[in-house]
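Hello forum,

I keep getting stuck at the same step: I have a sequence, I want structure tokens, and every attempt I make locally crashes halfway through. Rather than fight my setup again tonight, could one of you with a working pipeline run this one for me? It's a single chain of 148 residues.
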Amino acid sequence: MKVILTKDIPNVGKKHETKEMADGHALNFLIPRGFAVAATADVIKRVELEKAREEGERKVHEELLLKNLKGLEGAVVTLEEKANKKGSLFAGVHKAEIIPAVLAQTRLQIGTDYIVLDKPIKEVGEHMIEVRVLDKSVMFKLVINAKQ
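Reply #2:
Ran it on my machine without issues. Output:
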């Protein structure tokens, strides 16, 4: 059975992909849970339009982000996290925790896709964070203080 995925599903495919699935898997698992819809001509046209709209929105967002990226360059963003006396954080700081702090302190909304962070930050102190949009890249300073 041919289906169009409505969400990213690990080991199956990405959103808007058309996949050939076993009938039982599609009818009993994917479609009832809202992970996929049957691939009919009308649905394929609608999904193509939605895909084009989302791509257009993403491009507009990237262009706007590129224009505002200079405001982030050299900025200092501060976070307070729980840490022990040696300066090790109890929980690592991920991209998802950095984004609200950047939004609150610089009024620039960036997505997790644009932040370059190899691994979670696990120590108190100053860290240089890279934000890469298309071919342009800027750095800002993330200061993590221990919460008392």
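Strands lie at 2-5, 18-20, 36-38, 76-81, 88-93, 115-116, 121-123, 125-133, 136-146. If your local run keeps crashing, start a new thread with the error log.
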